[in-house]
Predict the structure.
Amino acid sequence: MPHTQSRALIDTYFAAFNAGDTTKMGTLVTEDLIHDVNQGERRVGKDQFWAFNVHMSRCYKERISDMMLLISEDGTRAAAEFMVHGTYLESDDGLPEANGQTYKLPAGSFFEIRDGKIARITTYYNLKDWIAQVSAPQTEAAAG
């Protein structure tokens, strides 16, 4: 897949993420997608990716900004670094209690692209930083 098509694919993926459009995100991945999330277990397949996104949408409202995207010359790999701006909506298992806390943290994702679709997504962020942010008393300044 040419570099420019891969760029458009990843841009579309992040636009769908920011819009909360999990249906669109699902159209951009392979049936046998490998999805590795920070501090979590590997999920394989589009159905598991869908279930993960439904869960995330229930517990978190997030948007991405300040993205730096790198695409390999042959278009088979991509890396993105970005800021996540989020609100913790509903308590997630094993994590602090949710009460609408906001957070902002740097993160990164790595992608493998095959046959015009995303075949692997690996995402990293600092979980301890996130926990500290949602555990701290919220102030007007932290809400931005």
About this structure: The first helix runs from residue 3 to 19.
